[in-house]
Amino acid sequence: MRPGTGRRGAPPGDPPAPRFVPVRDPENPDGPAFVLPSEAWVSFAAAVTAGELPTT
Question: What is the pLDDT of residue 54?
């Protein structure tokens, strides 16, 4: 591997996105996690940001 490159010769930079996103209750951080595929999390977060989901 050449100096200044990432693993397997890839250029350094942002790490790859996770495949899954665990979601926990912030009031119970040691409790169970609801695990979503990263694509579903991105869609959910975009909908919340755009105001497409109810907040109550």
Answer: 81
Q: Give me the mean pLDDT over the 15-33 stretch.
A: 88
Name, in order, each residue with C-beta under 8 angstroms of 56's C-beta and a sequence gap of 6 or more: none
Residue type, 4: G
DSSP assignment of the chain: --TT--GGGPPS-SPPPPSEEEE--TT-TTS--EEEEHHHHHHHHHHHHTT-S---
Tokens of 55: 């907040």
Q: Is the pTM of this model over 0.70?
A: no
What is the rounded CA–CA span in Å between residue 10 and residue 5? 6
Q: Judge whether residue 3 has pLDDT over 70.
A: no
